[in-house]
Description:
- 48% of the residues lie in helices and 17% in strands.
- The chain contains 18 helices and 7 strands.
- α4 crosses α17 (359-374), α12 runs antiparallel to α13 (306-314) and α16 packs across α17.
- It is elongated.
- One of its GO terms (biological process) is DNA transposition.
- It holds the Pfam family Transposase_mut.
- One of its GO terms (molecular function) is DNA binding.
- InterPro entries: Transposase_mutator (IPR001207).
Amino acid sequence: MTQEELDKMEKKALEQFTTGKSLFGKDGAFAPLLQNFLDKALEAEMEAHLGEDERSKGNKRNGKGSKTLKTGVGTFDIKTPQDRHSSFDPEIVKKRQTILADNLSDKIIGLYGLGMSYRDICAHIKEMYDTEISHSVLTEITDRIIPDIKAWQRRPLDAMYCIVWLDAMHYKVKVEGKVRHRAIYNILGIDRNGYKEVLGMYISESEGANFWLQVLTDLNNRGLKDILIACTDNLKGFTEAILSIFPRTDVQLCIVHQIRNSLKYVASKDQKEFMRDLKLVYRAIGKGEAEDELLKLEEKWGKKYPVVIRSWNDNWEHLSSYFGYSAPIRKIIYTTNAVEGFHRQVRKVTKTKGAFTSDMALMKLIYLATMNIKKKWTSPLQNWATTAQQLFIKFEGRMPLDLSTSPAGGTPRRGGGADRV
């Protein structure tokens, strides 16, 4: 590029900048500059490649090839030098590389992680950078996070988590031309410092206690040896699966799930009165008072709704675990609201999807959504200092209490960005 051409480009860039026009994309001033830089960089790489050793073997230049390169400042053609032995492998623009700049790839992955479809991403990239991206190229770019997903799924866990919620989300995936049901098993934990962490995500064809047993075994193999409190829905066999791997865990069944399941079998005309009586059970001051109210509930409704009352009695041991804790801890553990809140945030990203093209397409999007959500988890649970002390007393010898403090007198910050307790 001559000095005259550079002067023209500088003038054009200044005009576009002062008038608010984009310096990128179609007719942007930056594209020719990058094109010129790449052409010269490739020439320099060829010169370095054709050193004395290569020339002694008879290798020399053999013309130039041309290919279209998509970049963050637009799409243009570059000329790649070639050598007679075809041994030249450039670094700045590699062979068969058609998309340049990690920032464009990162931008695409970021848009995908926000729930945008491939079609919408293509339109956005075209509008912003005047660059056409095919669906196959987008798939190749988003597939780059698969190793990260697998590494994240296999990462070691802490030996102990104070509270763990276990629940599943349900989606549809296309398998061999047919739409199949898939359950995503999510495990949300609270570590000893009060911070949220998604311990794992697993895909299965349906939700069931047998698969949960496999999930719990995997967590155990990754280093998790003890869970103080596990909060689950009322899935049959779930409690047994947890206790078979973590026998000392205090299991709390979700009260909200139990209520929903109960109301399915109560006539609509009785539901309001039944709920008024039922609230006296699960909102009681203590377990003894709750059992008295449960007995009254059975006396009043037992003959009319025996299945409902039997369900409360059969599951009472694990429905009533939360009565052994103070009010702040009860509020945390008596429902699976914590993991359901996480699920609501994920669904904001996945709600536009009908059926995913594969299990990995589903996992990629939920993984990216999870990574975005966890950026907000920079502080421990509210009043965690008090909660941690109560857990330390109740689970003597199992709950390590870190008494070291930061200079300001708070709990040491985690990962450099967390607020003190």
